[in-house]
Amino acid sequence: MTTESQPRPETGKLWDDLLAECQRRRESTPTSASAPRPTLRLHQPEKHFFPELDRSPDLIAQPLRTLIRSAITGSDPWPLFVHGPAGTGKTRAALCLLDMAGGQYWTASGIAEAAILSFKGQLRLPWHTGPTSTAALWEGIGKSALIVLDEIGSREVVKDHAYECLKRVLDLREGKPLMALSNLDLQSVERIYDDRIASRLAAGSVLALDGSDRRLQRS
Q: Across the chain, what does the average pLDDT equal?
């Protein structure tokens, strides 16, 4: 049976510092005539997705932690496109943010499958009662506080339906909090999808994560 490791003693302080800094930046940011970048309102973390996975802010690579801070306070634009080899902490960092902000987690293939099920009247999501219609699925993605979209480009061949679903998510979340994750860099994403997908991902903040597979280090 999988058990969650004990929380690290510094984790609580990191969350408290992050909450305090976000509030401080929101209050000190001067108003301007231009539309401000959207910020994320954070709360004490609650695990709704993959609660068995150990994650905490002290496990997030420092460059990514800095980028997340900048995005949630409106200093840097959305989406966040984070790419790098498997096991470098991309998904766990995104889950940390979801725990604090609320929102939805999807994989690129999962959203395509969900769209098909919704069309058939067979999609059931934990945050809806009863079947989720196609309209409700896309409306929820557009209105969610945060969307995490994982495993972009996990397959070499992308069908038209999967392409259109990914593009629709990116269009619905334009300028809104979205964390997109991939093992592939933008050039590879453009090769598998096209320049329109790569352009949408590059429109915000891009970060490459390096390092060895943390899963292998723990095994």
A: 85
Cα angle value 123/127/133 (rounded, 5°): 35
Domain assignment present for 19: no
Q: Counting Cβ atoms within 10 Å, is residue 157 exposed (0-12), middle (13-18) or buried (19+)?
A: exposed
> Strands across the sheet with 178-182, in order?
104-107, 147-150, 178-182, 80-83, 205-208
Of residues 21 and 174, more confidently modeled: 174
- d(C-alpha 1, C-alpha 15), whole Å: 28
- What domain count does the chain have? 1
pLDDT-derived band at 168 (thresholds 50, 70, 90) equals very high
Q: Which of 18-27, 57-66, 116-125, 193-202 has the lowest mean pLDDT?
A: 18-27
- C-alpha angle with apex 101: 60 to 212, nearest 5 degrees? 20
CA distance 143 to 139: 6
Return the residue matching tokens 């509030």: 23
CA geometry: angle at 182 spanning 176 and 187, to 5°?
Answer: 95
Domain CATH code at residue 119? 3.40.50.300
In a domain, 75, yes or no: yes
Structure tokens at 48: 């709704």
How large is the C-alpha radius of gyration of the chain?
17
Q: What is the pLDDT of residue 126?
A: 86
Residue 99, judged by CB atoms within 10 A of its CB (0-12, 13-18, 19+), counts as buried
